[in-house]
Predict the structure.
Amino acid sequence: MKKVVCPACGLVNLEKFVTFPHCAACGALLLADSAEHVPIWKRPVNAVLWAVIVGICCAALGVAGILTARETQRLEVKTLIVYPQIPRKLRVGRLSQFRLGLDALEAGGAHSRVFEELQLRLPLDVLKEFAFYSVSPVPRRTTVRGNAMYFDFGTVEREQPILIRFRPRRAGTYRITFSLLASSFTPYQWRGVFQVGAALPKQKPLMRIAS
């Protein structure tokens, strides 16, 4: 039986030992040409190669996890849809109305029957330029947070539109943004430009009938 002395640590290794052609103590290669006769699946894996393999596996698992999370989120997200009926040309002092029809699209094409924790967000700048007279349905409460006012409607049926009656305070061009938020739905935001004309002068009667 052939004996080989390890050039790295000096241990005497037997040719028939299970770790041959690597040292049983330190793992160093004993014979330069012995590795050529060992099947590739029996050769020890280098530490750097192990690190590369582990890194690739971790990266693959991470990508798979992200894709799975995105797909799950896509299936669970419910989209809030709003059909606004909003006049674009307004007059100072004339009573006007916004009508916001509500709808939603869920996974599988189903429609929500109700909206929970529904809120309308209006910037405070809008309230300075327009006088609001009524909001329907009547909000449970209104709060000011930051630079906006929130109208909290609570639970609203899908068939129930939101109606807002208001009057412009002064003539000009206004850019208005409002948002609708509901529990478990993606927020809806609307932006538009309004042209507010001056108040029409009062017309005098063409003739006066003597009594």
Q: What stands out?
A: The two ends are 142 Å apart (CA to CA). The chain has three domains: 1-44, 52-76, 78-197.
